[in-house]
Amino acid sequence: MKWPSHGGQPQAMKKLCNIENDKEILDFSANLNPLGPPTWLKEEIIQNLDSLTCYPDPSYSRSSSCIAEYEGASNGQILLTNGGAEAIFLAAKLFEGRKAIIVQPTFIEYERACIHYQIVTEDVFLDEKSDFQLPLQQIFEKMKEVDVIFLCRPNNPTGTVVDEESLKQLLNEGRNTGTYIVVDEAFVDFLPFSIPSLTRWLASYSNLILLRSLTKMYTIPGLRLGYVLANKEVIEKMREAQMPWSINAFADAVVPRLLEDRTFIEKTHHWLKLQSTYLFEKLTDLDFYCSTSKVNFYLLRDNLNPNRTDELFHYLFLHGILTRHTHNFKRLEGEYLRIAIRSEEENKQLLFYLQKWRNEQ
Ligand SMILES: Cc1ncc(COP(=O)(O)O)c(C=O)c1O
């Protein structure tokens, strides 16, 4: 079977798996916040419909100022982007024709961006045995020869978070070797407040580049909104490489209100804590492995049938539950399923069918 390269494509998956077009599907394959978008967002976009006929401010100065204030950074350290995806490609463009390390298994777009900009890549691997923590020594051995390291924190697809101490060591070593560390923080807003973003390190580490996406937290994949945080020189270079008017007027218009809506973030944290505690407890009881995720998705494997993950994928899909295969995540090779944390009702449905699967084995 030719597996699609990203989650969130229920119609395409139905076709691939010969499932009727109109069958209702619960989509656990996309890692979007089920509480979003915030209720006011559609109305706010409608209110801004007249922006359709004007070019947006090319420097997006109002949105940049709001982000700067929100992050405790300066305007010059921010670049608004067309989703996290554009941020990844702009970051890669800085290192065109040079050498990179990618910390795998991770989001496929770092590798695609490197290929696009003729960057020679070498992979290092996080693995389950070390709870997906950084293989620091291995990275240090290669670091002199590389210009940039791409890593994702919290990581997609594991949901795990590499520890701060290792990252500090990486950034310090990067200062000696002239290596930049690009950290994709697309899911950082889902982390408990006790695990903060790395923004506060920007002042001390000029080799740190942070990539952000508003897509996941606010459930706005169609709007396309993200940003980069880095030192002023890096941001200036990225700005020069960016297409003009890359961010549409509606996305630009809603930035201030999105960032002001702390209640939405708090509600999300409350939901996630409740649901993740509940799910991980039940799944462990049923003898499923779950990665020690700190965010809104996790890796799952049936401990009693570790070689039957594809079968489990199809079993769940036939029962109307779409999960994300891991065939195109290096070294995972389909051994796990990536599953989003959804509403209480949906999570219960998932547990129901996993229990049923267990009973039928
Ligand atoms: C780790 C990571 N970074 C960036 C992106 C892209 O985000 P956006 O939709 O904002 O471009 C994704 C999307 O799945 C992702 O998983």
From TrEMBL:
The answer, when asked if Lyase is one of the entry's keywords, is yes
Signal peptide positions are: none
Q: Catalyzes what? A: O-phospho-L-threonine + H(+) = (R)-1-aminopropan-2-yl phosphate + CO2
The EC number(s) this enzyme carries: 4.1.1.81
Cofactors: pyridoxal 5'-phosphate
Gene Ontology MF term list? pyridoxal phosphate binding; threonine-phosphate decarboxylase activity
Q: Do you know which SUPFAM superfamilies this protein is assigned to? A: PLP-dependent transferases
Q: Could you name the domain of life of the organism this protein comes from?
A: Bacteria
Q: Name one Pfam family in it.
A: Aminotran_1_2
Record-linked InterPro entries: Aminotransferase_I/II_large, CobD, PyrdxlP-dep_Trfase, PyrdxlP-dep_Trfase_major, PyrdxlP-dep_Trfase_small
Q: In which pathway does it act?
A: Cofactor biosynthesis; adenosylcobalamin biosynthesis
List UniProt keywords, sorted A-Z.
Cobalamin biosynthesis, Lyase, Pyridoxal phosphate
Indicate the segments forming the Aminotransferase class I/classII large domain, all copies: 24-351
One GO BP annotation here? Answer: cobalamin biosynthetic process
Could you tell me what this protein does? Decarboxylates L-threonine-O-3-phosphate to yield (R)-1-amino-2-propanol O-2-phosphate, the precursor for the linkage between the nucleotide loop and the corrin ring in cobalamin.
Q: What protein am I looking at?
A: threonine-phosphate decarboxylase
